[in-house]
Specification:
Distance between the termini: 79 Å
Shape: elongated
Number of strands: 10
Helix content: 25-40%
Number of helices: 4
Length: 171
């Protein structure tokens, strides 16, 4: 009888120790996400004219809803950055829609914490402005990331930073 009680106690403690919580993730995992984003970026970029002299970064911040769909996309980029970069990043992020496993809490699907995808571009090969390419803020990009949502408090630090997409000059 004592053995049975100990076994039941062990099983119930073990059951309480296990969690039904999980973070949102791309269905194929991080390596598949990196490959998908890079491939999609290359496809979209080929259809866009991007012969600019620019070094900068654009951030996309988005969540995954309880059904695995991309939700609430917001962008940060330096004020003078051409809108083509936000357009490309929006297409890339939206291409992942429906390919995510939602975050779960207490066994139920919920909206995820934010994901942040940096898009770094170094479009400077073969072009110059007064002998230099135009730099719109790569030095301050991480500081700006901390101010991503002016209205939130510490929640902006609770996010998943994805591997950056990087674009180089095509010259």
């Amino acid at each position: 009888m004592l053995k049975l009680l100990l076994i039941l106690l062990f099983v119930s403690i073990k059951g309480f120790g296990q969690s039904n919580d999980s973070k949102a993730k791309f269905k194929g995992g991080d390596i598949e996400l990196d490959a998908f984003l890079s491939k999609k970026f290359d496809q979209i970029r080929k259809g866009k004219k991007m012969d600019l002299c620019l070094v900068s970064v654009t951030f996309a911040k988005f969540t995954i809803d309880e059904y695995g769909h991309v939700k609430s996309i917001k962008f940060y980029q330096a004020a003078k950055t051409p809108p083509i970069f936000e357009e490309i990043l929006k297409e890339v992020v939206n291409a992942t829609d429906g390919q995510w496993l939602p975050e779960t809490f207490n066994g139920k699907a919920v909206e995820s914490r934010p994901f942040i995808l940096p898009f770094i571009y170094q479009m400077e090969a073969g072009c110059s402005v007064n002998g230099k390419s135009v730099n719109y803020g790569t030095d301050n990009s991480l500081l700006e990331l901390l101010k991503f949502d002016q209205d939130s408090t510490m929640r902006q630090l609770d996010c998943v930073l994805l591997k950056p997409l990087v674009a180089f000059s095509q010259n």
